[in-house]
Amino acid sequence: MSNTTDRSHPRMRALARTLAAVLVLGAAACGRIGAAENAVLVPPPTVDETASAATSEKAVLAGGCFWGVQGVFQHVKGVSQAISGYTGGAAATAQYEDVGMGTTGHAESVQVTFDPRVVSYGEILRIYFSVAHDPTQKNRQGPDTGTQYRSAIFPMNESQQKVAQAYIAQLDASKTFAAPLATTVEPGKTFFRAEDYHQDFLAHNPTYPYIVVNDLPKIDHLQKLFPDRYNADPALTPVSVSVR
């Protein structure tokens, strides 16, 4: 959200619609204030993608409200872009008001574009499991409840699927967490970009109460647990052609 106070601005009108939806959806909507989640530094994956000459790769991850997940990966070195969106359902329902009902099959997700020469897919997942969310919670994260807040990995190819499944099995076998992981691996799903007013929400709204309580601690955890991976300057998202 820009710093403008002009309520006639398209993005301000869109944000107003979103805040109204939050009030209507209540517990099922991203935006409730809860308590910060604890970070757990998980071990590196024993199975990772084979190094290649590729300079760009995409990963799609879901772990609760996309504001915080996007914010975390925007601060990871090697990430050129992190976009909030919806994955798991149909194109017709890939919009905030519908997804917030929890009946579309979509999860609030983030598409991460990264340079695998700098940070591997397995390392992206390590950050995802360690600081981006609590992978032991089923259909919820912190104060947000519903299938749209599930912990899910949407692999882009068979290689990513193999790495994700092996990593979940590794963490469960080592009992890294006190409870089994609830993370699902869901291949063959399409990512749909969310409305512009959701993009870079953490970066543009650092004093928003939900962000202060639920998401800024994740950025602190990233810096403390992965100092060599932390980038102080976030990779912000270009505004799309149209505002929904």
Give a verbal description of the structure:
By secondary structure, this protein is α+β, with helices and mostly antiparallel strands. The protein has one domain (10-225): 2-Layer Sandwich (Peptide Methionine Sulfoxide Reductase, Chain A), CATH 3.30.1060.10. The chain is 32% helix and 15% strand. It contains seven helices and eight strands. The chain has helices at 10-25, 66-74, 96-99, 121-132, 158-174, 201-204, 209-225; strands spanning 57-63, 79-87, 107-114, 140-141, 144-145, 151-154, 184-185, 191-193. Strands 7-6-1-3-2-8 form a six-stranded mixed β-sheet. Strands 4-5 form a two-stranded antiparallel sheet. A hairpin with a 2-residue loop joins strand 4 and strand 5 (144-145). Helix 2 crosses helix 4 and helix 2 (66-74) runs parallel beside helix 7. The two termini are 14 Å apart. Residues 1-14 and 18-28 have low confidence and may be disordered.
